Amino acid sequence: MKIKLFYFARLKESLKYSTEDLELADSNEPWTILKLKAFLAKRGDVWGQMLMGKLKVRAAINHELVHDNAAIADGDEVAFFPPVTGG
Amino acid sequence: MTVRVQTEDFDAGWEINKLRKARKDIGAVVSFIGLVRDINEGDAVSQLTLEHYPGMTEKSLQAIISQAQTRWNIIDVLIIHRVGTLQPCDQIVLVAVSGCHRAEAFSACEFVMDFLKTEAPFWKKEVTPHGEHWVEARESDDDAKQRWNTNKN
Hints:
The structure holds two protein chains of two kinds.
Chain A (H helix, E strand, L loop, with lengths): L1 E6 L1 H7 L3 E5 L9 H9 L3 H8 L5 E4 L2 E3 L10 E5 L6
Helix pairs in contact in A: 2-3
Chain B lengths: L1 E5 L5 H10 L6 E8 L3 E2 L2 E2 L2 E6 L3 H16 L2 E9 L1 E3 L4 E9 L2 H18 L2 E7 L2 E4 L4 H12 L3
Parallel strand pairs in B: 1-6
Antiparallel strand pairs in B: 2-8, 3-4, 5-7, 5-9, 6-8, 9-10
Helix pairs in contact in B: 2-3, 3-4
């Protein structure tokens, strides 16, 4: 399935990515936010540090904040970012 | 409800007048303005940059207003949040709530700010004498949001 990914703030800067289109292989276990983070973390040091390290990472699917066990579907827009600091 | 995310400054007086003149049964308008300070965590701050997630930001703010409208008997809510590069003393955010009476408008305004600070996808980056850094989220902001789970008002 195909998804669109966005990164914001510290993640965007450290990963040097703001957005990408990603093809995820079909598997028996559904793709979740946690599974996607673990998959991306294998890309290298900074990916592991940013997505699976000590830093808190929040995720959104189609503009809604979600937890790590949320399932990802074909065509979804997924975003990773640090805890928000507006206002 | 009105939600605006913009780089330009806003005129709070003009916005509040527009809100209060919209109907004749409004008895109270409560507003909050958040400002850029020239100090944070002991460091001098010379500039602030605000990033956001276009699309999600607006939806998130609208959802927060809807929750406030479900919870309290209020008439209207306006949120303006700035993004881009700001200087100390600049206005960052305006939340204005109109209602028939003050108590519900006060509570709703505080609720909207507490949820905005913990759910709306904005991120601040500060320029200090030590360089640039992303502002860390505060636990006290999560605590401020949590209290709405237990207290009706």
